[in-house]
Amino acid sequence: MVKAAESIKKAISIRTPERKPNTKALAAYLKCQGEVEAAEELSKLVMEHCHFDPAIYDELKTYTTAISHSLNRRISMVEDPKVPIIPVLEKWVQEGQVVTNSDLKHFIRKLRKIHRFSHALQISQWMSDQRGHNLSPGDVAVRLDLISKVHGLEQAVTYFNSVPESLRGLEVYGALLNCYAHYKHLEEAEATMRKMREMGFVRNVLSYNVMLNLYYQMGKYEKIQVLMQEMEKWGICFSNITYKILLNAYVATSNIEEIKKILMKMEADPLVSIDWYAYVVAANGYLKAGLIDKTLTMLWRSEQLISGKSARFACETLLSLYTAVGNKEQVYRVWNLYKTKGRSLNSSYLCMINSLLKLDDVDGAERIWEEWVSIVKCFDIRIPNLMVSTYSKKGLWEKAEAFVGKIVASGIKIEASTLDRLATGYHVGGQMLKASETIKKAISISQPGWEPNVYTLAACLEYLKGREDVKKIEDLLKILKEHCHPSSVSYDRLNSSIIDKENLCARALDHMEGEDQALNGERPAATEFEDKDSAEI
Question: Which stretches are PPR repeats (predicted)?
């Protein structure tokens, strides 16, 4: 059967487009293998070399999923990282079912991709401790990475020190370097890089990308130049990731000339496929330098390269940058273009409304809000909060009040964060009795961990104190203590705000705006690059 399998694979790889493989032979091979990876390997080969045929696809799908479907489903159902995954595997084996080491590695990869690191680590340890599997350098590298993510850097280093010298190859040292870089331990990362140089392990771009990104994240820009020279000395070609790290570093230092040079190198490099994000980063650099025409040129180039799964994030990024430029016409154009490409998500509506509000187009933001309300399936509280915040900043407390009233009338459960913003609106508008009542209600319906705007709260307490309304002060403080358990920092800010009564209104608005920015995010986001090849160790 092994010879038959190899013959099938060879036949597929050299077949002419019009010929179809023998699906019965394929099915027999998949049954015989009984391993997820083997089945997926052949499936991938068929999809690469054969024109799409529903019959072939269905045949393959049946056998590639049947092998591990039941165990896959059981593992998928254990979503809580605190619940151990090993009992699921042991029960499977006790039922007389087969699970191979290849299957286990497949599950580890899948779990890592969805950030279920604890379960992936448990399977890795079970594979060697209970199944007697001899770990390869690749297995050790994966476990080292998982220990770092689950238990922290110290335990990861302890594990590395326990690994026999014979297994400490490029993959394992590369994983250790990633661990130090992730935790921003610069000296240890540099020491590991030196050790890798001594052992001849750094003649590839992956390790250099890790160090370049670490220097970028920590603002060690002078060290980036030294590392680039070393790469050129050894003839190590830049990858897409390398160029993007360099672009971000030069944007951070406003080095316009180097931004131009890197873009030219990317465009001329036959080994690199330049994408929309590279031009967005460059646009951000030109924008920081006040070069609006160059910014618009970069945004136009970026837009020509947007496609596939990245379209949503790309369009949201363009919206934010055109907003920063102050070009409302382009904001609407990108938005209307994006909507033609499929269903718009909450994050996109949030981005568009935020953009229009920054451009002081409140009427436009209200129209987009109405459009969102008419189609929304999953209510996102950040969007109405943004509208309430805007009305509050402008002193339009009546509009904020009516807006919140509409939400309540529609049957949507109001949240503390929305009422908190409304209370700030009342505060700005001088409606302190309403502000006091509203912030009290916000606190009473809040979830554990939430805290109100301390400056609005301080203003309300000061207002009630001025009215000598001791009962309302006591009620408000009692509810605050019962529901919020404010942190010591918040208590200090509250006390200092009551003592220092000046500018409470401005501070409340600043606090609210800071919360909105934290929840909504700003694009382009701070980038921490991860090389796919180094991630899949």
Answer: 169-203, 204-238, 380-414
Average pLDDT, stretch 451-478? 87
Strand, coil or helix: what is 259? helix
Q: What are 243's two structure tokens?
A: 């160029």
pLDDT score for 488: 45
Read off the DSSP letter of residue 33. Answer: H
Residue 326 gets the label, from left (phi > 0), alpha (psi -120 to 50) or beta, of left
What gap in Å lies between CA 24 and CA 72, rounded to an integer? 25
DSSP-assigned states of every residue in 332-367? HHHHHHHHTTSPPPHHHHHHHHHHHHHTT-HHHHHH
Q: Kindly write down the DSSP assignment for every residue of 96-153, as one continuous string.
A: T----HHHHHHHHHHHHHTT-HHHHHHHHHHHHHTT-PPPPHHHHHHHHHHHHHHH-H
> Can you tell me the distance from the alpha carbon of 175 to that of 143, in angstroms, rounded to the nearest whole number?
9
The answer to whether 279 and 302 have CB atoms below 8 angstroms apart is yes
Torsion of CA 50, 52, 53, 59, to 10 degrees: 80
Torsion of CA 510, 511, 515, 517, to 10 degrees: 20
18-39 residue pLDDT tens:
555 565 565 555 544 444 455 5
The rounded distance, in Å, linking the Cα atoms of 157 and 144 is: 8
> How many other C-beta atoms lie within 10 A of the C-beta of residue 388?
27
For residues 426 and 432, is the Cβ–Cβ distance under 8 A? yes
CB 177 within 8 A of CB 192: yes
**Residue 279: partners with Cβ closer than 8 Å, 6 or more residues away:** 263, 298, 299, 301, 302, 305
The answer to whether the beta carbons of residues 305 and 324 sit under 8 Å apart is no
What type of residue sits at position 501? K
pTM over 0.90: no
